[in-house]
Amino acid sequence: EAGVTQFPSHSVIEKGQTVTLRCDPISGHDNLYWYRRVMGKEIKFLLHFVKESKQDESGMPNNRFLAERTGGTYSTLKVQPAELEDSGVYFCASSQDAGTSYEQYFGPGTRLTVT
Amino acid sequence: GQQVMQIPQYQHVQEGEDFTTYCNSSTTLSNIQWYKQRPGGHPVFLIQLVKSGEVKKQKRLTFQFGEAKKNSSLHITATQTTDVGTYFCAGGVYAGGTSYGKLTFGQGTILTVHP
């Protein structure tokens, strides 16, 4: 069974540019989560999809971040325009069932550097 | 908002020594999960604790959940070089109703083991 995959693995962009990150969850997992880890700090929740619906987007930093999951399969996270403080590792995770009681399977992450 | 504090931030041990990392939540948790991230890797689920005072073991790893469900610890006996990585706790809080809640991660403890 394939795990959670993310693309790209690394992205270096200039301040003001746009970047789109992609996550493919484990097949059959309706729940998809986006997290971000800024260097040396905790992994912070961004949002949670149940199929194509946004269940919780309370962790999204501001309106420069837009997440979509059309069709309830893969998800994209777009940052437009990027700022320096957006640098970090963006993780995607999926789980078979929703809620905090279920194991989440993490992808390898996308390391975003904004210069 | 909910916070989960994790200490220490770093721990260097000689191979064969024991290691412990602690997590403390500002609010009562419904459950706590532990993840391990190897250098260059992504978080991998280790275990979940749900009951007050619960203790679980996985070979040399012992996980505890406090009686008040606000703190937790991970203890590794006789560390090995394969234990190297960052250990994260993640606390879950049931949000009530139809809300699934979300995980709040601690900052992680970076463990290095000298052979």
Write a brief caption for the model.
Helices cover 0% and strands 49% of the residues of chain A.
Descriptive notes:
The complex is a heterodimer of chains A (115) and B (115). Chain A is built from no helices and eleven strands. Chain A is 0% helix and 49% strand. In chain A, a hairpin with a 2-residue loop joins strand 5 and strand 6. With 115 residues, chain A is an all-beta fold. In chain A, the strands form two sheets. In chain A, strands 2, 4, 5, 6, 9, 10 and 11 form a seven-stranded mixed β-sheet that branches. In chain A, strands 1-3-8-7 form a four-stranded antiparallel β-sheet, with no helix packed on it. The mean pLDDT of chain A is 93. Chain B has 115 residues and is mostly beta strands. Chain B is built from no helices and eleven strands. In chain B, the strands form two sheets. In chain B, strands 2, 4, 5, 9, 10 and 11 form a six-stranded mixed β-sheet that branches. In chain B, a hairpin with a 6-residue loop joins strand 4 and strand 5. The radius of gyration of chain B is 14 Å and the shape is globular. Chains A and B meet through strand 5 and strand 10 of A and strand 4, strand 5, strand 9 and strand 10 of B.
